[in-house]
Automatic annotation (TrEMBL):
Pfam families: DAGAT (PF03982). The keyword Lipid metabolism applies. GO terms for cellular component: endoplasmic reticulum membrane; lipid droplet; perinuclear region of cytoplasm. This is Acyltransferase. It is an enzyme of class 2 (transferase). It catalyses: 2-(9Z-octadecenoyl)-glycerol + hexadecanoyl-CoA = 1-hexadecanoyl-2-(9Z-octadecenoyl)-sn-glycerol + CoA; 1,2-di-(9Z-octadecenoyl)-sn-glycerol + hexadecanoyl-CoA = 1,2-di-(9Z)-octadecenoyl-3-hexadecanoyl-sn-glycerol + CoA; an acyl-CoA + a 1,2-diacyl-sn-glycerol = a triacyl-sn-glycerol + CoA; 2-(9Z-octadecenoyl)-glycerol + (9Z)-octadecenoyl-CoA = 1,2-di-(9Z-octadecenoyl)-sn-glycerol + CoA. InterPro entries: DAGAT (IPR007130). PANTHER family: DIACYLGLYCEROL O-ACYLTRANSFERASE, DIACYLGLYCEROL O-ACYLTRANSFERASE 2. Pathway: Lipid metabolism; Glycerolipid metabolism; triacylglycerol biosynthesis. Belongs to the diacylglycerol acyltransferase family. The chain crosses the membrane at residues 43-67. GO terms for biological process: diacylglycerol metabolic process; glycerol metabolic process; triglyceride biosynthetic process. It is a multi-pass membrane protein.
Amino acid sequence: MKTLIAAYSGVLRGTGSSILSALQDIFSVTWLNRSKVEKQLQVISVLQWVLSFLVLGVACSAILMYTFCTDCWLIAVLYFTWLAFDWNTPKKGGRRSQWVRNWAVWRYFRDYFPIQLVKTHNLLTTRNYIFGYHPHGIMGLGAFCNFSTEATEVSKKFPGIRPYLATLAGNFRMPVLREYLMSGGICPVNRDTIDYLLSKNGSGNAIIIVVGGAAESLSSMPGKNAVTLRNRKGFVKLALRHGADLVPTYSFGENEVYKQVIFEEGSWGRWVQKKFQKYIGFAPCIFHGRGLFSSDTWGLVPYSKPITTVVGEPITIPKLEHPTQQDIDLYHSMYMEALVKLFDKHKTKFGLPETEVLEVN
């Protein structure tokens, strides 16, 4: 305010230099305020997705159950009736909404880190694809932003390709959360869904599978580039059964945005995590990012570190209705080799030293 008053006084004095100086002061104050507002909008856009991912499903389930006990019980009855009829929609690719995928909030989400999608090769619309996404990180934020929104223009970079990000099937049993996920083109990561998309949904489909899953998230930490892949072969078998090309994809910086407590093998903490992973499908992590108002405090907002997702060259896969273990092993080894080459080729472009090695577990 003092700057604005001083600027106005300079204008009243009437000198040309004072007027020029006053205008510069006014614009500098406007830019500063706008910059702060932009940053806060970025933080809020990221936090809303983190909270949606963590608590939206549970919160909406509790609210609907409570609604049964109120005068608004009919609303809950109508929703659950509709839910019963709509139960299998996620298995058929869901209900994507281009309107939701193009929300401005996702552009603020992208710019917070920032997140970038790098295309290295064209994809044919006459083929179907399975993208192996690595690493998982804590929440797979790069996978969500790049393939479940249009913030990084995935549809323009790969015209004619429909991306489907696959996640835990349990998320689609949660009221309201399931609608939110489906609107972005997110689907359950199970055999029924993948079989449908690769055999009954035409061509030009790209299913993004975070191959390392919960096991990989447990080792996610800044400065570490490691993937859980050596014994993950189910996605290769699916690709062979449907003749879907495999596309290695590596997200540089995915592990940098959260810090977590790593429990050693054999500890009680790791035992609890493995039990959750075995019986529920996910492994609870003790992690933290920055606070809502300050990067010097702890909170759920991820750290603003760049995430660059590089989509590699597709590996042509033949269609084999009954692939043998030898077939699976062959194409799995080809995929691992392609992923390591992709990492080595691009690592120095995104801040890693030439000596950095991708650890494949």
